[in-house]
Every structure is written in C-alpha cells, then in structure tokens.
Amino acid sequence: MKSKIRELIAAGLFAVAVPSAVCAAPFTIFGTGLGPTGLPLPAAAIDPHYQDLTSGTPAIVITNTAPYLPNNASSQWVWQTAAGTPVNTTLRFETTFDLTGLDPSTAVINGAWGTDNNGLDILLNGHSTGITLLGTLITNFTVLHAFTINNPAWFVSGINKLDFDVQDVGAIAAFRAQLSGTANSNVPEPATLALLGLGIACLGFSRRRQ
User: pLDDT, tens digit, for every residue of 163-202?
Assistant: First the structure.
C-alpha cells in the first residue's frame, strides 16, 4: 500500500513538472521609428528595424506628422523619405524578429497600425494574414487599428519576417506599426528540472521497495 502511494506521488510530481517546463515570454519586436534600444528616433532618422523592400532602402522617420495621430514612445510615422515621398505609390515595409529558444507554434503578435492611405496586407513569412485598412479613409491614419497574428503554422524557429504592404493616394504619405509579441520558452526552468528529477527519483525508490 505504501509503495503504491509513493508511486502515485511520484507520478503527480512528474505531471506537474512537465507543464511548468514552458512559460510565456516576451520576444523583441520593434515598432516603427524606434532605435536599437527601443527609444524613439529623431525626425529624419533612419529606422534600423524597417526596410522598404520596393527600393531596398531603410525606412525613415518623417518630419511632418500633421494631420496624423501624434507619435509616442512605442512607435512613430515612417516612409521611404523624411518628406513622406514618393506619393501615389505602393511600398512594402519589412521588419524581422528572432524566436530562437522559443516555441514558434505558441507565438503571438499583438499590434496596431495605420497608414496614409491604404493598408493592403500584413504578411508573416510570406503568408497573407488578410489584415487590411482599405477605403482611403482619414481614420486609417488618425487612429491606430489593432490586430493579432497567432497562426501556429506561420511562425518559424529563428528569424521571422513581418511585412506591411501600404499604398499612398495623393499628397504626403506615412506608415506606422506598434508591436509586441510573446511565445512559450523551449527551455525548462532550473526549478522545474529539479522537481522533475525528484519525481523520477521517487518513482525509482518506490519500485525498488516493491
């Protein structure tokens, strides 16, 4: 009877240890217009985290943000040039983030974006999310629009690519994204490993007593 109790206790420790081996952790993904440490860049500065793939040049913080939603500490308006030109064009802005050491199937990106004028799509590693900002509306750039990306099949281990397809119609142009992300860790915590070892040891002891 005692050996059976020990075996049940050991099995319980093992069951507790396995789920606690993973925990949600934030990963680094930058909003537009932020420097290497995540602080806002000055106007006309080069954004080191975003590149315009149509021209092969980095995004630049625009100098004239009226009538756009004011910049904040989490993101700023950018475009191909500081003046918000060229206009009447479609650009693709890309940023990357690293999921090394994290479980990509558990990754989630929460964000908000805006553009002057149309957001045509957001793509993760080439997969279209179907997220758009259409209609050439003023509200496309006077507020930021929230979105979530959590399809487990689209994230990959290591470096991931996030693209924003935006289109300008008319005068000056701009794009902005505000982002955060989480994913479960692939690495068991030290306390979890100790608990797992204790469960295995108890199970072995109970079998020897039998």
Answer: 999 999 998 999 999 999 999 998 655 544 444 443 444 3
**Structural domain count, the chain:** 2
Q: Is the pLDDT of residue 3 over 70?
A: no
- Is there a contact between 95 and 113 (Cβ–Cβ < 8 Å)? no
Buried b (16+ CB within 10 A) or exposed e, 168-195: beeebbbbbbbbbbbbbeeebeeebeeb
Domain that holds residue 78: 23-186
Q: Are residues 14 and 51 in the same domain?
A: no
Give one DSSP letter per residue of 29-98, joined into a string. -PPTTB-TTSPBPPTT-EEEEEEETTTTEEEEE-S--TTSPPPBTTB--EESSTT--S-S-EEEEEEEEE
